[in-house]
Specification:
2 copies of one chain form a homodimer.
Chain A lengths: L3 E2 L26 E3 L4 E5 L14 H25 L10 E10 L9 E11 L2 E10 L2 E12 L6
Antiparallel strand pairs in A: 1-2, 2-3, 3-5, 4-7, 5-6, 6-7
Chain lengths: 154, 154
């Protein structure tokens, strides 16, 4: 499977997310790219995303882990499915649980590299590990448990 | 200890947080109130805080858990200290780890009630449980481990 942008391939009715939706003009517009094994996103927090002067606030880090983790899950499942079909449309997953360990302060003004790796893939539950790097230094790591979008949200 | 607004009592140099800083005019401005045993905040997500149509995105829920949890920790420690001193200024804590379980979709357009309860209080580590209610229904619960602001952030 070639490298592709994950959020561009979400179904049109599920592209509104404040964190990563291409249709949300006020949102963060996180863009995740799948390379066949992992997903990578680059994101530079803006000055307003401050915790205390000089550092990124935790809610933004959590948003990056969440949206990128969900995207990683969606791409990983699509790749599994592609081994047996030609349906390339990504299915939309949502977060059952989110965990973030803040290892050191994440500085503002630096482009962050976010890496997501699927570690367990079941049809109805995908576990994704996410790492956030600032200048090659790991500042936060997280885990997302992704599940298919439930009927009452779809 | 009387009911008071927590973020109003943070030191002036630590009031910039996008989630809860009174000095961040573009932020969420979460306001947490301590009543002596728990902290309560009310927050209504705006339309832009969407996940999929009708529901709040996970990153906002995580931000509410994070900032409110940290505020709860700060107030709980202040109360402990007040038993032996008159220093009412709140100390600033930061997040070592954050966990959120998304129990059911959180609808947009509804005021949320966020409740934080300290469950373990040590001088250098406070564990806080946080619950988020929409119309009396628990939609998410989380845990924050708070630690004093480290030297390299202060």
């Amino acid at each position: 499977m070639k490298k592709f942008n994950i959020q561009e391939n979400y179904p049109e009715q599920y592209c509104h997310c404040y964190g990563c939706g291409k249709k949300n003009m006020e949102g963060l517009r996180i863009k995740s790219y799948w390379d066949g094994e992992k997903a990578v996103a680059l994101f530079t927090p803006s000055d307003k995303h401050i915790a205390v002067p000089g550092y990124v606030y935790g809610g933004l880090i959590a948003s990056l882990v969440d949206c990128h983790g969900i995207g990683t899950a969606s791409a990983a499942i699509a790749q599994e499915n592609l081994e047996s079909s030609e349906d390339t449309k990504l299915k939309r997953y949502v977060t059952a649980s989110l965990h973030v360990d803040f290892l050191r302060p994440t500085p503002l003004g630096v482009e962050l590299k976010i890496i997501g790796r699927p570690v367990k893939i079941h049809k109805r539950k995908i576990v994704v590990n996410v790492e956030i790097y600032s200048d090659e230094q790991l500042t936060a790591k997280g885990e997302v448990i992704a599940v298919p979008i439930p009927m009452n949200m779809a």
